[in-house]
From TrEMBL:
Keywords per UniProt: DNA-binding, Methyltransferase, Restriction system, S-adenosyl-L-methionine, Transferase
Ranges for domain DNA methylase N-4/N-6: 20-262, 334-371
Stored Gene3D superfamilies: Vaccinia Virus protein VP39
Taxonomic source organism: Actinomadura viridis
Top EC group: transferase
Biological process, per Gene Ontology: DNA restriction-modification system; methylation
Annotated spans, Disordered: 276-304, 379-404
Keyword S-adenosyl-L-methionine: yes
Family: Belongs to the N(4)/N(6)-methyltransferase family. N(4) subfamily.
SUPFAM superfamilies for this protein: S-adenosyl-L-methionine-dependent methyltransferases (SSF53335)
Catalytic reactions on record: a 2'-deoxycytidine in DNA + S-adenosyl-L-methionine = an N(4)-methyl-2'-deoxycytidine in DNA + S-adenosyl-L-homocysteine + H(+)
Identification of the protein by name: Methyltransferase
Source species, domain of life: Bacteria
GO MF, one annotated term: N-methyltransferase activity
Length: 404
């Protein structure tokens, strides 16, 4: 498809109302670093506010703008990190002068209502504000478990090795295609015998929860903890970008496949959802049996009898459908937006998986980096998880537009 790189402000997006199917982004964390153009700090960037409450207010202003461009059927996924209150340096991890990269900048201040060494709970404050002030629906919080997280020089608490995604929607009913991202079933962590695991495949009625049809043949839904290792990003020297913080493509892939359509119908406007073939169950009894589907069991009078279990045929995705009565209407690519595009990971992964990716950033340096990355054959192969493909022919670079 395409990857478009826009230089613009996340609070004023150059996009029409309700034009985006999915938003996936990671805003700059408060007081962590300066993002630059040509090595110089630029004004107006999120994360440079002197006070954490101002930071949350700015993030909510951004989110209100994202809600404007998001379709009613769309989702927003935001990755946000936290910070500790520091007595001697306010909340800034740098020198006591606050922003070290410009002398006239305001210094960070320690919030008076937060005790020293406390987490500021910035992700939680953002989520509460998104619900209370913007009326969004908080559908889930997903933990990104980083097995190779950076070490910390602390001795009185655990090392922090995770960050939080929040899944927000505008409406209770929205697009999802979770059948695309199911995981293989795993046996429970218990040693109560084989029957303890097999019992999960038995059809039975659960009191108060409806009918249970056993394990889904396509696999289990992903849990709320995703273990994904970080990956280094090697940027060519000629781009001359001093810092780059990129989350791994594997972290974004499940979100894009699970919550953006493979195609949007041009007739009805709905996203195409996967159609799962459910051939049903064969045979009679439901309980586990031998490989050929039959076994003997004892009867009430002490004899034996042979019975045939019901054998589940595996479900599979056989196509995609929308609200149209016929499945042959043309489609267009779904639009996936990252309003803090940075290195272009979201647009890259969306592009290689058949979506239209849009990466927005205020920094010309990062727009230049994202332009290179979304076109580079090696980066595109890594986003797909396949060996490096041949070089991209000239004339197929992504579009780079600068919006004032």
């Amino acid at each position: 498809m395409t990857a478009v790189i826009l230089r613009a402000d996340a609070r004023r997006l150059p996009l029409p109302d309700e034009s985006v199917d999915l938003i996936v982004t990671s805003p700059p964390y408060w007081g962590l670093r300066s993002y630059t153009d040509g090595g110089r700090h630029y004004e107006g960037q999120i994360g440079a506010e002197p006070d954490p409450q101002d930071y949350i207010t700015a993030l909510l202003d951004c989110t209100a703008e994202w809600s404007r461009v998001l379709k009613p059927s769309g989702s927003i996924f935001v990755l946000l990190g936290d910070k500790y209150v520091n007595r001697t340096r306010g909340a800034w991890r740098g020198s006591s002068d606050g922003f070290t990269w410009r002398a006239a900048s305001p210094r960070y201040v320690r919030p008076k209502d937060m005790p020293e060494k406390s987490l500021m709970l910035l992700p939680e404050r953002y989520r509460i504000g998104a619900v209370d002030k913007l009326g969004l629906i908080a559908r889930a919080v997903v933990i990104w478990d980083k097995p190779s997280a950076m070490p910390e020089s602390v001795t009185d608490r655990v090392r922090r090795s995770h960050e939080d995604w929040v899944h927000l929607t505008k409406e209770p009913h929205y697009f999802s295609a979770v059948d695309e991202i199911r995981k293989p079933h795993a046996a429970p962590r218990r040693v109560a015998g084989r029957s303890a695991f097999n019992a999960r495949n038995v059809n039975h009625v659960r009191t108060g929860t409806g009918h249970y049809d056993g394990q889904h043949p396509l696999g289990a839904l992903p849990g709320s903890v995703w273990e994904v290792g970080t990956q280094p990003l090697r940027v060519p020297e000629h781009l001359d970008v001093e810092h780059f913080a990129a989350y791994p493509p594997a972290l974004i892939r499940s979100i894009i496949l699970g919550w953006s359509p493979s195609g949007v119908c041009t007739a009805c406007g709905d996203g195409r959802r996967p159609v799962v073939d459910k051939p049903g169950l064969l045979g009679g009894d439901n309980n586990p049996a031998s490989r050929d589907g039959s076994r003997t069991r004892s009867t009430m009078d002490g004899g034996t009898e042979r019975w045939q279990r019901r054998i589940a045929k595996p479900d599979r995705i056989v196509g995609y459908a929308c609200a149209c009565s016929t499945p042959d209407a043309p489609t267009r690519p779904a639009v996936v937006l990252d309003p803090f595009g940075g290195t272009g990971t979201t647009a890259l992964v969306a592009d290689v998986h058949g979506r239209h990716g849009i990466s927005v950033d205020m920094s010309a340096d990062y727009c230049r980096l994202a332009q290179w990355r979304t076109a580079d054959p090696g980066e595109r192969a890594r986003a797909l998880g396949v060996p490096k493909p041949p070089p991209v022919p000239s004339g197929q670079d992504p579009l780079f537009e600068e919006i004032a």
